[in-house]
Amino acid sequence: MQEEFPIRLTMVIPCYNEAANIPLILERFKTVATENSGIKILLVDNGSTDNSADVLAENITLHPYAETIRVPVNQGYGYGILQGLKHCDSEFFGWMHADMQTDPGDVTKAFEILKNNKFSKNIYIKGERRGRPFADNIFTAGMSLFESFYLGTMLWDINAQPNIMHRSFYEQWENPPFDFSLDLYAYFKACKSKLKIVRFDVLFPERIHGVSSWNSGFQSKLKFIKRTIDFSIKLKKSIKGT
Q: How far is CA 212 from CA 35, 78, 100, 101, 208, in A?
């Protein structure tokens, strides 16, 4: 099947201590890969300290549409994604979370958008979350308004998944961040590069297994805000320097 339909889209999924979710990800992507033979997934064991490596080794050979690489030491969410992107050989690629709060079926929707846009190089596809708790919506709105005002570019729901782009856009990146700021970096760069930004609705249910590595309470949100603001300052300085 893969030989008849060359891979056009690779989805990178960084996994940090997601052993319980890995079999679910692989199983649910089976339908996506069957319906769209031009899609594959690359699971990145991002320095996990649980038994994610063993679970991947046991399951990956059962799913021909999936590959895996390992990052020995966790250096951040963004770092894991970037290591995955380096291994992608498809024309389009992107990323999404491993926590199953982003439905693999959303990749099917994104692939249809690519088709409808004749696989244009000048497109950036990004989900827009629905069905979230009120407090999370307020947090997202506040961060979106701050970033839009501070960076002078309209940005909304910055950390929504999935994110999909053409490799020619990725090849223009310079010093992308290794943490959760990667979502902001890529989205902002896409806007400044005047790519066609296509947003589509995605549901965002509760986690099935595990605990978020950043959204686990008020203190974690404060740390996330501080890191994001610190990176935004660097990003704005880099704009002035160009």
A: 30, 15, 11, 11, 11
